[in-house]
Amino acid sequence: MTPARMDLYASIHKGLRSFMADTLGAIGRMDAEDDGERAGALAQLRSLIDVMEHHADVEDEFIHVAMQSRQPGSAEPRGDEHRRQRAALRDLRQLADDVERASGEGLAALSQRLYRNLALVVAENLAHMDEEESLHNAVLWAEFSDVELAAIHDRIVASIEPRQMAELIRWMAPSLTPAERAALFGNLRSSAPADVFRRLLEVARPHLAQRDWNKLVFSISAPPLAA
């Protein structure tokens, strides 16, 4: 059986898919007349937009540059898609601001428009991520060893600020298989300061079923957090 190759996309894309789906649901069921509910749903949407913009920047800076260095032109189609995505995300952010300020009869129409526009952004990104996982991985696996890919991965992780990493872990941790989750936290434990690692465990814990939490603690031999 051929060992699985190093995959730069698998875990983060699982987290992004979950974040997008959850946010689409939150916007779809949002009671726009309830100020607190509207504020919460829009805050989640803005966090999603921030993560998606940052994710595209990271891929451009680290993965696309590496691909272009070995196969010139191989990253250009998805790079063009990133530019279109950024424009769509800017429009989505502006529409969220419009919903936040709206009242009366126009609020319902704007909320529905926001939901449908977000649905299109989600749909386009689901297709985009599938292309990266197939077409881009084909290039990466042909041109780079797993050691080289692991080095790219480590540079990506080192570039992410703690606040951004916590947001990613919140969505990635419950979206992964037990083996993928153990690999993620095992890598973090070996590379992050102890206090940062513990904080990321604390971020993940409320979003994991008890059996998944138990499997994670056992697999990485981490001391349990205080109840």
Helical percent range?
A: over 70%
User: Main β-sheet: number of strands, strand sense, barrel status?
Assistant: none
Q: What separation lies between the terminal Cα atoms? A: 42 Å
Order of helices and strands: HHHHHHHHH
Taking Cα atoms only, what radius of gyration do you get, to the nearest Å? 19 Å
Which runs of at least 5 residues are low in confidence (pLDDT < 50)? Answer: none
- Count the strands? 0
Structural class: mainly alpha
Oligomer: single chain
Q: Count up the helices.
A: 9
- Could you report the average pLDDT, rounded to the nearest whole number? 94
Shape: globular
Explained architecture:
Helices cover 80% and strands 0% of the residues. The protein is mainly alpha-helical. Helix 1 (10-28) crosses helix 6 (162-172), helix 3 (76-101) runs antiparallel to helix 4 and helix 7 (178-191) packs across helix 9. The longest helix has 39 residues, at 105-143.
Characteristic terms for this protein:
227 residues; mainly alpha; 9 helices
Short description:
The protein has 227 residues and is mainly α. The protein has helices at residues 10-28, 35-70, 76-101, 105-143, 146-159, 162-172, 178-191, 194-204, 210-220.
Question: Strands, helices and their partners?
Answer:
Blueprint: H1 10-28, H2 35-70, H3 76-101, H4 105-143, H5 146-159, H6 162-172, H7 178-191, H8 194-204, H9 210-220
